[in-house]
Amino acid sequence: MAKILVTTARNMYGLNTIRILSAENHEIYAADSIKLNGGAFSKYVKKSFVYPEVSKNANSFIESILDFVEQENIDYIIPSFEEAYVLSFYKERFKNKVKMLVEDYEKLMVLHDKYTMTQLSKRIGIDVPRTVLLKDFKQAEWKFPFVLKPKKNRAAMGIKKIDNAVQLEKASRKINRENYMVQEYIEHKQYCTTGIAYNGKLMGNVVYKNLREFPESGGFGTYRVSCDIPEIIENVKKIVSELDYTGFICVDHLYDPRTGAYYITDVNPRMSPGLYTAYMAGVNLPKMYIDLIDNPQN
């Protein structure tokens, strides 16, 4: 039995992680920047605490985690959201104190930034929508509709379909052009993946699609089903191999029925909402996370 700290315990997939690892007979601890989080009230959690808001004071967040690790003799930390990026940036401070499976910060940022991720995917032979930075966008070279998208976002936040010049002019007034890009609009079906990699090898992965989303126009999946699509799995393997990547990785694709191609549109180098879908499909990602730290050869 190990002592495991799950951070951002408000997430449903953070709570799923708590339940899954408790079933493996581990002692589970939970933490979040808000007091009212699901993990704090779970019967499977021995103790929880509130840390400073990560985006406002990263150093205080790290100090709080380190203090709790020492106080409770925590063996492992599993980040369930983008605090993983901060833990990566400061991971040398955790060396010989607690175990984590987080990639180097520079690699995480290549994938987290949708523009650099798109350029990487294109370079290694993966289909991507036509993409240009908004600051380099020339309207005469594009046809409506297209997509205006932040280079860094989550859950489809900030993404706008632009149907005409009036919409473009209105949307452009409200944003920082340096932080946005323009992408080809594809009539599509979306497929997602959730998985884990170690030293450039994809160790576990499940492809799934949302049957229902909130909002209904597109966003967070609320009902999912697993799928078998070898082309998507190969795309994920290419990215993992190219970066010699380690850690959770989740990739979104758009399927274009006109061409039969699967276009990569997003990569989240962290845990994702599909974690429980993977678990029900027989891929126990939280358990694999612990096992890869201790016994990567097995």
Short description:
By secondary structure, this protein is α+β, with helices and mostly antiparallel strands.
Question: What key phrases describe this protein's structure?
Answer:
single chain, 298 residues, alpha+beta, Rossmann fold, D-amino Acid Aminotransferase, Chain A, domain 1, 3 domains, five-stranded antiparallel beta sheet, four-stranded parallel beta sheet, 9 helices, 13 strands, 30% helix
List the helices and strands and how they pair.
Layout: E1 3-7, H1 12-23, E2 27-32, E3 45-50, H2 58-72, E4 76-79, H3 83-89, H4 105-112, H5 114-123, E5 131-133, E6 146-150, E7 160-162, H6 165-172, E8 180-184, E9 189-198, E10 201-214, E11 220-227, H7 230-243, E12 247-256, E13 261-268, H8 275-280, H9 285-294
Parallel strand pairs: 1-2, 1-4, 2-3
Antiparallel strand pairs: 5-8, 6-7, 6-8, 9-10, 9-12, 10-11, 12-13
Total of helices: 9
Structurally, the number of domains stands at 3
The structure class reads alpha+beta
The level 1 CATH classification of the largest domain is Alpha Beta
Shape label: globular
Report on the biggest sheet. Answer: 5 strands, antiparallel
Q: Estimate the strand proportion.
A: 25-35%
Gyration radius over CA: 20 Å
Under CATH, the topology of the largest domain can be stated as D-amino Acid Aminotransferase, Chain A, domain 1
Along the chain, the helix and strand elements come as EHEEHEHHHEEEHEEEEHEEHH
Unreliable segments (pLDDT under 50, ≥5 consecutive)? none
CATH H-tier superfamily of the largest domain = ATP-grasp fold, B domain
Residue share in helix: 25-40%
Reported CATH architecture of the largest domain = 2-Layer Sandwich
The end-to-end span amounts to 19 Å
- Strand runs, count: 13
Q: Mean of the pLDDT scores?
A: 94
Q: Widest sheet: strand order?
A: 11-10-9-12-13
